[in-house]
Amino acid sequence: MFDNLSDKLDKAFHILKGHGKITEVNVAETLKEVRRALLDADVNFKIAKDFTTRVKEKALGQDVLTTLQPGQLLVKLVKDELTELMGGDVAGVNLSGNPTVILMSGLQGSGKTTFSGKLANYLLNKKNKKPLLVACDIYRPAAIQQLYVVGDSIGVEVYSEPENKNPVEIAQNAIKHAKENGFNVVIVDTAGRLAVDTEMMDEISRVHKAIQPQETLFVVDAMTGQDAVNTAKAFNDILNFDGVILTKLDGDTRGGAALSIKSVVNKPIKFVGTGEKMEAIDVFYPIRMAERILGMGDVVSLVERAQEQFDEEEARKIQKKIAKNEFGFDDFLTQIQQVKKMGNMKDLVGMIPGASKAMKDVEIEDDAFKHIEAIIHSMTPAERSKPSLIDVKRKARISKGSGTKIEQVNQLMKQFEQMSKMMKMMQGPGGKNLMKMMGG
Ligand code: GDP
What we know:
Elements: H1 3-14, H2 24-40, H3 45-61, H4 70-85, E1 100-105, H5 112-126, E2 131-135, H6 141-154, E3 158-159, H7 167-180, E4 185-189, H8 198-211, E5 215-221, H9 225-239, E6 243-247, H10 256-265, E7 269-273, E8 281-283, H11 286-293, H12 299-309, H13 312-323, H14 329-341, H15 345-351, H16 355-358, H17 370-377, H18 381-385, H19 392-402, H20 406-427, H21 431-437
Parallel strand pairs: 1-4, 1-5, 2-3, 2-4, 5-6, 6-7
Antiparallel strand pairs: 7-8
């Protein structure tokens, strides 16, 4: 996510390193590089210029030249400014109204239908809501079908009227259906076009007026950079929407959209989409994003995700097994599955401070545990619960069965051994507290 921008900003700050004394000249030079990095990330020229002007003013106001660690202060000022640029505070969804009506707008292909599903899934599981999805695209039967597939996958009902060619009526009928059947959130997915046109705008504006949604969300593909900003402006002029959803942030986006949209339409980014799966939705926290861009990681999100996946019962079982010396490969597999639920590896590495930079040239597979899982699956149940059984002959069989190299099997055995040792140590005197700290 935003690797290029992170890289360039890091290089900009390097100018200050190695200089015994910081001068106004090299601060200016650093900020020039910061500006260039922003422009390369497809941030609008004026926004980038104002950005560095503000940082410079603050830096001079705070005597950046005489502080002990001027480099760090400058990084902090840039972080604050990035946070501000992306919206400052976190903005939640307005869930007032019964039912709450949420209207989705945006171009075709922006990820509207996918996001409608993600939002329904989020509200169902995290906010205890009973959502209804509504298909209002009267032009593409495939779009209605797609919403059904999405709804099915998350167990959320979909409302549609395939014969009705009036989206206003469909939306109104859907709200009526929701009221009669106890749904407390109605998510209306609308038809998008490939580009902004008056017909589409007329249609969505009619639907908007008729159903008076509590939340009108504009969905945009982050990969489209400045175009995203222009489209946002066009939709905002008509709908005066409440928030922006940036999708496809998992891709190789330069970051321009995330950094510019707030300044142009003055509406917050509320969520981001980070993948095609229904779980790939994140509340947007400007400060956490700024920290990630500056390579400071995002430990808060990492811990939150770990907590979400943390299963207390499972942890207790594992702890007992360690105490009894019974921790085996099946337990190891369970642990891996828990980590996997937290998200894809690239994303997780990006949340660890400094890790993105350190691992910049390392190819991280999306499924980094593939080989480990294959190896464990090739073991017999007896081998899994008693790893000491695994001798050279068995190793060769496991390697063959799992399609991995013998070195990979050896490596896993070694890692497992080290991990078991460490776990035993944590059980010993002094270790108990550490386990407690980790939630055990
Ligand atoms: P719509 O036409 O606006 O309803 O867009 P869709 O929901 O059909 O999405 C268009 C394509 O983008 C589909 O292939 C989705 O799977 C994909 N997509 C949507 N959101 C994301 C995301 O956050 N990340 C990635 N990688 N793909 C996404």
